[in-house]
Specification:
globular, disordered N terminus, FAD/NAD(P)-binding domain, 17 strands, four-stranded mixed beta sheet, alpha/beta
Amino acid sequence: MKQKHGTNAYDVVVLGAGISGLTVAHSLARAGRRVFLAEATNRTGGVFRSDKVDGYLLERGPNSFTCSPVVDELLREIGLLKRAIRRPLRDYDRFVYKNGRLHQVPTGPLDLLRTDCLTTRGKVKLISGLLRANTPPRSDLSLGEYFRPRIGDEAVDTLLRPFIAGVYAADADRLSFEASLPRLYNPATTHSRLIGAVRAMLRERRASAPTPTKGKNSRKALVSFPNGLEEFPRRLTRIIRKHGVDMELGRTFRIAGKQGETWELKDEDGNSVHAGKVVLAMPAGQTARALELIVPEVTEVLDGIRYAGLTVVHSGVSAWDVRAREKGFGFLNAQLPGEWHANPSARVRALGMIWSDQLFPGRAPTGMGL
């Protein structure tokens, strides 16, 4: 192993060079810590991957991220803020696919009254559920267990369920309310009305938010870069190398033990690295392997964590063949099994679709959509 300073002792070892590991390493290096960053694969960035294929710019992982003052400050630090392409969320309609067509999702009280997304009965149930008093949950529930008695099955299946599937690729009836929506769960345990819990969540969010960015960058927006989202981890990688972070790719380490205040880590060849602190920024299975020598009892727990598999399919189509896209950036699938049991060929086997070229420039050749 090559060491810039002639020693294998560091203040901090970070295992995992996805966006979390890179950001931690960057912050520590800026604070003057000696950092060693190890990544089991041959590249940094984790699930962030952008590839150019036949004139298309394909995002193999996330398509964008949501801006915030904290992220903007990080982009400024690494020289990417001016390259960021922002698409304000309020400038784009959202859609769900239901009953064979796209329906615009309501984003405000007036939209809720006008939308054909829900039936009149569904709208009444949703609005009354926001105002009606219920016993607050005394233990964690699934999202479905909490919301269905309050806002009704129709609102859950049409609005909440597709949103949760789009974010987590998971089932709202099986996903923990506390784990998936913690900012709403906490006030929900003390407020009898859902509207009160929502208001408390919004107040807490405003109170805990950093000083907001002024001007056009203050609008909540989706963000990417001219060469795709992978510009972010690529720039972070260059910056932390410049700051003196030692980095090794294609190497796996396990924590061998602790002597005094120093941790010892060993790679698959028996080479050692020592550090005062260790940061684990890896998936659960890799974290289990890193810890199995010192806390084997957590291995089974970590290996039992289920990850939602997700396949990203890119389709290049003639821009003239695509409809209902003028103001939107995509749709989520709100189909229910009852819609396609009688006609399996009508089933949409997708969580949703992003119209990539609608959001950011340079995603598709001229005259084509992505």
